[in-house]
Amino acid sequence: MALTINDLIQTSHNTAKEKGWWDDSNRNVGELLALIHSEISEALEVYRIKGKDGLQEIWEDEKGKPEGFVTELADVIIRIADLCGEFNLDLESTLVKKMEFNKTRPYRHGNKKA
Predict the structure, then answer these.
(1) What span, in angstroms and rounded, lies between the C-alpha atoms of 113 and 90?
(2) What DSSP designation does 60 have?
(3) Is residue 68 part of a domain?
(4) What residues make up the domain containing 83?
(5) pTM of the complete model
C-alpha cells in the first residue's frame, strides 16, 4: 500500500478516531508529544536488547501484534500523523520545505557535534 504523507495522516487519524482515542476531547498537545516520545523510548529499548544487528528484525507477540525496532518507529510516525490530522497540520508541504532548507545549510551546521 503506497501512501502520500497526507494519506498517512488521514488514515492514521481516522483509525485513531474509530478506535476511540479521540472520544475524550480533552487530549492536549503535551500528552500527544509524550506518547510520541514513549514510542521512541520503546524503539530505544528494543535497540538496547537486540543491538544494531536486530534493527530489521520484526516478530509477533502472542496476540499477533508486530514488534521490533522498526515497528516502534512506525508507531512514532502513526502518532505524529494522528496529531497532524487532529490539528489540520500540513506536514507534507512542511516536510518538503524543511528538506529543501536543510540542503542549504553548511556542513554540520557550523561544526556541531550531533
Answers:
(1) 31
(2) E
(3) yes
(4) 5-16+29-103
(5) 0.91
- Residue 21: C-alpha distances to residues 14, 16, 36, 60, 82 (Å): 10, 5, 14, 23, 10
Residue 40 counted as domain residue: yes
Q: Is 28 helix (H, G, I), strand (E, B) or coil?
A: coil
Ramachandran category for residue 99: left, alpha or beta (phi over 0 → left; psi -120 to 50 → alpha): alpha
pLDDT at 1 over 90: no
Residue type, 34: A
Range with the lowest mean pLDDT among 25-29, 69-73, 96-100? 25-29
> pLDDT tens across 88-108, in order?
999 999 999 999 999 999 988
Identify whether 67 is part of a domain. yes
CATH assignment of the domain containing 38: 1.10.287
